[in-house]
Amino acid sequence: MSRIGKLPIPLPKGVEVTRNNGTVQVKGPKGTLQRDLPSEMKIEVVDGQIRVERPDDSQQERAMHGLTRTLVANMVEGVTNGYAKTLDIVGVGYRAELIGKNVRLAVGHSHAVEIQPRPGITLEVGQETNNRQFYVRVSGIDKEAVGQAAAEIRAIKKPEPYKGKGIRYRGEAVRKKQGKSAKGAKGR
Description:
By secondary structure, the protein is of the alpha+beta class. It folds into 2 domains: 9-80, Outer Surface Protein A, domain 3, CATH 3.90.930.12; 83-169, Outer Surface Protein A, domain 3 (Alpha-Beta Complex). The protein contains 2 helices and 13 strands. A hairpin with a 2-residue loop joins strand 5 (42-46) and strand 6. The model has no long low-confidence stretch (mean pLDDT 90).
């Protein structure tokens, strides 16, 4: 039996789970999420916990068991607490500003890049007081959508390996390379 799949999911107060023909809907204080899941998986609410069970031990069923449990757990967590990722903007002259719901980034391109948030995603811009560094906070209730939006923003200007300038996740370690050495060019 799958170690992840057999773990029960605690159901917080105020969260409802319904299942209709392979579609699972989770309602909570922050909103509603809906997702199509494998119809073979049995999802039941018992004693304030959600349990996911598979019908047999075929390879396909075993593969989907842990995935289904994790997707449902992420939906419950999202409608209860939500998800957020913070991106730091590192570089001299690199800036971010909020214009309505959109974010405008000045990150070394010849033009400013404007980002429109996906549906269900909120973008916030702030500035660290100690080092005047800007950051963008991506938040929402769908873990997959928050991660995808953050990855798209990071892809605008990935951190480069020599000075570390660019957009990176908060806490991400950027491995720096050693620059060109003046020692080799001296004897020419």
